[in-house]
Amino acid sequence: MLRRSKQREAILDFLRKTSSHPTAYHIYEAVRKEIPNISLGTVYRNLRLLRDEAEILELDLAGSLSRFDGDTRSHYHFRCEQCGRVFDVNEPVDLERNERVAKKTGFRVSHHILEFRGLCRDCQTSMA
Amino acid sequence: MLRRSKQREAILDFLRKTSSHPTAYHIYEAVRKEIPNISLGTVYRNLRLLRDEAEILELDLAGSLSRFDGDTRSHYHFRCEQCGRVFDVNEPVDLERNERVAKKTGFRVSHHILEFRGLCRDCQTSMA
DNA sequence: TTAGGTGCAAAACCTTTGCCATCCC
DNA sequence: GGGATGGCAAAGGTTTTGCACCTAA
């Protein structure tokens, strides 16, 4: 049912060739050099398709909208992919990791964000 | 210069009392029970203020817009908070961690997302 | 032939902003 | 008084969608 289209192929090609983690708009601009009248809507549609087919990765898949927390201490989170709820996770925060990555990359690392994804208890039972 | 206002206090109160990691709109709905004519714009303004004062945490602060990656193998990222660029990080992916959290929480953990934040090399030098 | 894909434009969503009235200090 | 705030509504930026027209299988 998934047909080939030069638009989708151009998008996938570009993503496979670059390591720049582009936004949808970046991709649109790049692919437009090859297919000048491609539309941004098509880019979005195909990105979604490719992501669903696991051909590409969407970073920060996040519910996209921001969430806020009254607890400012550094801690990790779990996000249920079914219901979207966010829970705190009591894993120790590994600060050495920042050091290690800083040393390896030359970047200055101020902190890191760790989020677990999956199904919360409620959603596991309601799917059973 | 930061004055008190019942709107801001109601927002902070609510965030301190809940552990539900609400969205801006959730907060708006909750606070509206107390201050019926508060506006969504005010909620956003105060969330930003409180975040800047480090009174609350904004999760997934993310560049908000999605980024895509042609490499679907599990790997970690570094995001520069100055220029917004995203880089791959060659840290080993710790799969046992998913196990550990699953056991502890009862959630089904399919994967985790780890993102380092800070300044890339270019931005460090250009700020010096 | 025909389900899937495209372009275009409008809509939907979330967030920010301008303006003016109001409130604290 | 005067700067900080708030309410309202309009604007901004990103993503999705409806629709009529194509196109690959």
CATH structural class of the largest domain in chain A: Mainly Alpha
Uncertain runs of chain A:
none
The total of helices of chain A stands at 5
Written as H for each helix and E for each strand, in order along the chain, the element string of chain A is HHHEEEEHEH
The SS-based structural class of chain A is alpha+beta
Oligomeric state: homodimer
Q: Count the strands of chain A?
A: 5
Helix-strand layout with pairing:
The structure is a homodimer of 128-residue chains.
Chain A: H1 6-17, H2 24-32, H3 40-52, E1 57-59, E2 67-69, E3 76-80, E4 86-89, H4 96-105, E5 108-119, H5 121-127
Parallel strand pairs in A: 3-5
Antiparallel strand pairs in A: 3-4
Helix pairs in contact in A: 1-2, 1-3, 2-3
Chain A binds a DNA duplex (25 and 25 nucleotides) through residues 1-5, 7-8, 23-25, 37-42, 44-46, 48, 64-66.
Give a structural overview:
Two copies of one chain form a homodimer. With 128 residues, the first copy, chain A, is an alpha+beta fold. Chain A folds into two domains: 1-72, Winged helix-like DNA-binding domain superfamily/Winged helix DNA-binding domain (Arc Repressor Mutant, subunit A, Orthogonal Bundle); 73-128, Ferric-uptake regulator, C-terminal dimerisarion domain (Dna Ligase, domain 1). Chain A is 40% helix and 21% strand. The first copy, chain A, has helices at residues 6-17, 24-32, 40-52, 96-105, 121-127; strands at 57-59, 67-69, 76-80, 86-89, 108-119. The first copy, chain A, has a three-stranded mixed sheet with strand order 4-3-5. In chain A, strand 3 and strand 4 form a beta hairpin. In chain A, helix 1 (6-17) packs across helix 2, helix 1 (6-17) crosses helix 3 (40-52) and helix 2 (24-32) crosses helix 3 (40-52). The model of chain A has no long low-confidence stretch (mean pLDDT 87). Strand 2 of chain A pairs antiparallel with strand 1 (57-59) of chain B. Chain A binds a DNA duplex (25 and 25 nucleotides) through residues 1-5, 7-8, 23-25, 37-42, 44-46, 48, 64-66.
